[in-house]
Each structure stands twice: as structure tokens, then as C-alpha cells.
Amino acid sequence: MTDATYLAVQRQFKSRRLTAFAVPLLIILYLTYLFVSFDIPGLAARARLDNAGIMLADFWSHKTHVTRNNATGNLTVAIEGESKGTYAPSQYPDWVQTNGATTTIDLGSGNLITYDAKGARYIVPGYGTIDIKPQGEKLVLTAPQPIPTWINVADTRISVTTPAGRFAYSRSKVETFKYEPGWELFFFTLDSPFYGKSYGQLTAMLMADRIDPARSNLGLMASEFWNNKMWHHSVVAWALFETVLMAFLGTMGAALIALPLAFLAASNFAPFRAIRFTFRRLFDFLRGVDGLIWTIILARAFGPGPMTGALAILLTDTGTFGKTFSETLENIDEKQVEGIRSTGAGALQRARFGVFPQIAPVLLSQILYYLESNTRSATVIGAIVGGGIGLLLTQAIITQKDWEEVAYYMILIVLMVMAMDTISGWIRRRFIGR
Amino acid sequence: MVDITFGPPPGPRPDLNNPTEAYIHQTRRKRLYGFILLLFFVALMASGFHTAQDRNAGDFLSGLHQLGDFPAEVLSEAWTNRANLPALLLHYLPSLLETLNIAGAATLLGGLLGGFLALGSTRHLARFPTLTPLFRRIADIMRAIPEIVIALMLIFILGGGPIPAVLAIAFHTAGALGKLFSESAENADLKPLEGLASTGASWGQQIWLGIIPQVAPNWLGYALLRFEINVRASAILGFVGSGGIGYDLKLAMQWGGGKYDQVVAIFALLFFAIMAIDQLSSMARNRLVKVH
Q1: Do A48 and B152 touch (CB under 8 A)?
Q2: CATH second-level architecture of A233-431?
């Protein structure tokens, strides 16, 4: 080994060692800067962990409201407090017992709540009886002292939160919330003849006499499920379809437009350099103007809806496809084109028989990849232009209480994207062999 | 005899005495299939477009005339107030920086997590080879959930600001990079691993010294590509409620006429930032590939 090589190797070692230290150091410096600039210490004050608890519980459970109007004495038992989920008096779940004036609610494990003419009482096991009576404008609370923190007392409202449920007394109404696992009305709503039946009972009902003389019980069951008033399965299915449609139309439309244009932007096909340059810049422009900006501009012209979303995807992807397709065209094997030319083929025939068979697998693979990734983008774009599952999802999140629907949509979106992934993988293997 | 040994013929066989006809026959059939496929595709596109058009608020053809209206309105108003533009560009620069920082932090976090996911889901490298399908599924699910879902939920818990966006984008990035990283790690040469194992190196040392140097350029390239994507995602997330330039854009847009000079300033900043980042990152990626 000569001295020069030795020195060179030493120098290289030194610089490598320096980078090995400098890179992590730079990253740490950057993260420190972000720590300050994103105000991470202030996050603790802003974070609402109780919200997280509500959200996570709501994902997999539902709550039933048992409400008595203190002015009229009317009792309502409703799932999630929605009018569409209100039980008819004959249908009350067995943990609610009422005989007009007195209502007893059994929250389980000894938690008993009674509404009567005097007020309301809540027996908490291991603590005692919480008794609330209205007296003029105020509420009078009688409970074992000291009052624990899970009882919130104000002049006009008293609320109790226990592991079994929640209870709130205000001058206008008394409410009890019971949490139970599962999505109660997912299959059938309360007004459906199929509500609350087990699988065995449902199978038996299929064979039994027609409930609706106009159609079979199976048909009725399908329609009761499909038109479920709480979960809107038909609307959700449409929304999913719309999202896939946006991705499909956008991606395929972009590919159809970009393919001929890519010939004009490829150095080995463009007739003039000026044309090539123009189309290159056009593609850069389409790609550079972000999908967000296209979405906004298009939504102004076409209004909200799936077509606007499809066009937004189409415009951005025309830029992307134009660039990648023209790069693919530049990399083709000229010999095949020459062979076709030697038979006296025209430009179009050369493209069809000399070029296209070479680029088709690469193009197809790129298109499939984007189709899959655009299914996800279509969800986001749908949230902005107002179409598809993205819209339903943002609406459900904005209400800040329908978290079980959010969970449902999330599962559906994941399944949808995975299905697109599987389908595109299958097509790729079938047609390209990899 | 041959037919008996190899089972029944799969279809009419080409007549070997007349190859021209056989070839033409085959080509014809291929062309017919291609034509049917094309017809099906065209019908699918047409009906799809029709459905999308039906469910859209505005019509395609009438909308086409209005396509230029909004940009024209915006640009003309911005032109009358063009004196404001330099000041506005400067005013929105911090927001742009925040958007870029969100993308940067998310790419860093997501890349780190994606690296671990990739090591967990690559068969010959994984510490626990039986768990590779699990890690793969996790990466698939993380990839499938769009950023906006996680961002909106985190905004509910953490309040507005850049952190929900960072976490949401990082989550998705980890899944996406986990897959790409694992694909490139699968092609890594295993000989250095054996060499290191023979010296008694632990699993961590084997990976750090034997695999990471091999895959680093490739991984960096993917991470840079992801950074470009994340800048766009971070702008969009701003539009639905977390910080950055997307949020400013939303505020300016909500105002309608009168603040279009701000809209133009934000569009311009976003456009040039994305172009610059695309150029820089593609240059850097080319260098990474060339050096190694």
C-alpha cells in the first residue's frame, strides 16, 4: 500500500466518522427546534384526555338514555338519545321497570336508580344512597358526607359518574346513561320486526309466515337492514362506491390523457425540442399545483360531488403520469421500433406494434399503483369537495359524539383500501407476472 | 396415446402443418379478447362518468365554462392589490415553514418507525421470524388508514395545532415506508450478517453494521420521496383544521372576495415550495443512486 492510498483511506475514514456523528446531531437539533416551535410542553395543558376516554368507549359501546321530563313526567328510553332509537313503552329493556309514577333502573352490580314523584334516588354499592329532591328553584342533595369528587354538585344540576353509568338531575329533567358493549341497532332498528332476535330466531322467522304479505321475509329482512335508519347502510355503501369511482375515473382518465401527451414529451418521439419542453413544463405545473388547490378551483366551477373529486385526481395525475410515461418511453429498446419500421409501418403502427408492447406492463403497473393510492386520496378529497365516504367520516367526526360511526367508517375504509390493494395485486400478477 | 398420458387436450390444437393459419387464428382470438376488454373498459368509464355527473352538484359541460371564472376573479383582484403581495408572501412564510416542519417531523418519526416495522417484517432479518406476518399486517393497516381520519380524531383529543397533523402523517408514513423499506431490505446481501454473527455480534449489531449501511441509500431515497408526498398531505390537513399554511388558506377562502390577494400569495408560496422540494429531492435521490 502506498502512502498516498493510505492517506486517502485515512481521510475518508475521518470524514465518514464525522458524518456519522454530524447526522444524528443535526437530527437532534432539528427535533429540539420542533419541540419548541410546536409548543410540545403546552400540549399537556391543551390535551383533553377525558375526550380520548369518551371516544375510545364510544368506539365499541353504545349508551342508552333513560330520561324523565320533570315538567310532564313523561319517560323516554332512547339509544344514544336519538328519536330514531327511541323504545316504544311496550319494548323497554328489562333493566328499566316503570309503573307510571315510579321508574326503577338497574345499572347492574347493585346500582339502583329510582325516579318517583318526590325526586330521584341512586343507591351506589359501597357508598350509600344519593337522594335528590327539587325544592323551589334549587335541588337538595342528601348523600353520605364527604361528597366524593365523582358527584358534581351545582345549584341547578347534580351529576353522578360511576363505573356503571352516568346520572344527571337538573330542574327540567332526570337522565340516566347506561353503557353497554356493541353497536345495538347495527342490523335492525327498534321499529323493525326483526329487532332483538337471536340468529336462531331469525332463521326460524325466514321459514315462518310472511310478516309483510307483499314480499318474502328474507326480502323484508334485507330491506330492513339496507334501509336501517340509524346506520344508513345503503348511504354508506353508495359513499364507498363513490369513493372508488372517484379514484377509478381520475386515475384512468389521467392515464388516457397522459399517454398520447407523453409521446410529445419524450425526447425520442417529440418532433421539436420546443414541444417537448412545453409539455414537460405543463406536466410539472399540473403536478406542482397541489391536489388541494385543484380541488378548490374545481369545486368552484363544478360544485361539490364525486365528479369534482375525480377531476381533481385526474388533473394532478395527468402531470404525474405524463412525467413517468415519458420517462418510460425514453427508456424503450429502439431495435423493435426499427424492425417494425423496416416493414414500412407508419408512425401510428410503429407506436402500436413497436412501442406499446414494450411499455404496456410498466404503464399498467404504474396505473394500478396509483389507483390504489388514489383510493386513499379520494377519501381525503371527498372530505373537501363533499363526496363519498370522506364526507360521511368528517361529518361523523365533527358531531363529536358519533364515534361508533367513525369506527365503522374507518374499518370500511381500511377494508376498501386493502381490497383495492388485493385486486390491483391480482391484476398485476395476472397480466405482468410480477 | 399421448392424449391419454397427458390428459385430455385443453382445446383445439394448432395444426402444425399449417403454422400461418394457426398464427392468424391465435392473433384473431387475442385481438377479439383485447377488443372485448376495451369495450368493457369504455363502458365502465362512460357509466362511471355518468354516475359521478349525476351525483355532482354542478354539471360537467356548464361547469367547464366557469372553470376559468374563479381563477380569473382571484387573479384580477390580486392584480389590483398587487402592491400587497410582497408583504403577504413574507407574512405567510412562517405558516409555510410550519407546514414543511410538520412534513419533516412526520417523515422522521414515520421513517424511524417504518424502519423497525421493516426489520420486523423481513423474513431473514427479523428477530422473531414467526412474527413477520403480524408486522406486515400492522404496516398494511397503518398504510390503509388515511391521514385525515387520524388527524381529525387527534384534533378532538389534543386540540388544534401541528401535533395532530405530525402524528397522523407519521402513522401513515410508517406503514408506507415499512413496506418499501422491507422490500429493499429483502434484497440485501446476507453475507455481512454471517460474518458479523461469526464474530459474536448481537442481533442489533448485525443489523446496524451489516444491513443498515447496505440499505441506507435506498431507504433515504424512499424517505425523501415520502417527504415530497408529506408536504402535500400536511397542506391538506391544515385545510381541515390543523396548523400550517393550509389553515391560512382556508381562512382566506372562507372570507370570499376581498381577500383573494392572500389566496394568491398562499397558492404561490405552496406552488413554489412544492416545486423546489421536488427538484431538490429528485437531485438528491439521483446522487444517492449514483454514488452507490
Answers
A1: no
A2: Orthogonal Bundle (1.10)
